[in-house]
Recover the amino acids of this structure.
């Protein structure tokens, strides 16, 4: 229905009722409910168009409030922010290659080659072409956030990622 049709339908519905103010209709129904069921039923039938329009308006208001976007910053996903996502992908890549002695820069290059091989769309690429220094810093920040080891023996040891991959819990980014 278009606006003029809706206005015409509302005018026709309201013209059938002697009271068009929702507050007055509510008071009328409350007074009728104190007498008998027959009196209440008769009052509802007389004011049905106003009651129906009020319920329709109320449902529209509830729908509009339910569909509003939430205020504030969106919550981070299970892998936290982009830094943690990059750290997780690098961690998985290092685990797949089996070379746990890779530097951040070497891990970035391997991840880029995997994304290129898989023909990942640019929007989905975690290691898309951008400044090498900023990628390295981002990966370093992500590793720090998840408490990834940076020792000489095993640079890529991460208890949160190990647990998450095993299905226990999400990493604490």
């Amino acid at each position: 229905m278009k606006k003029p049709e809706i206005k015409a339908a509302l005018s026709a519905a309201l013209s059938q009722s002697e009271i068009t103010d929702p507050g007055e209709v509510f008071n009328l129904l409350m007074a009728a409910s104190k007498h008998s069921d027959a009196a209440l039923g008769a009052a509802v039938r007389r004011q049905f168009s106003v009651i129906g329009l009020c319920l329709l308006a109320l449902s529209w208001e509830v729908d509009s409030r339910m569909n509003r976007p939430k205020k504030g910053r969106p919550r981070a996903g299970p892998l936290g922010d982009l830094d943690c996502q990059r750290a997780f992908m690098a961690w998985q890549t290092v685990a797949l290659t089996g070379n746990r002695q890779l530097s951040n820069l070497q891990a970035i290059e391997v991840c880029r080659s995997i994304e290129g091989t898989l023909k990942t769309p640019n929007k989905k690429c975690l290691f898309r072409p951008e400044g090498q220094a900023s990628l390295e810093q981002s990966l370093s920040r992500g590793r720090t956030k998840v408490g990834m080891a940076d020792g000489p023996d095993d640079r890529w040891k991460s208890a949160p990622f190990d647990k998450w991959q095993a299905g226990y819990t999400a990493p604490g980014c």
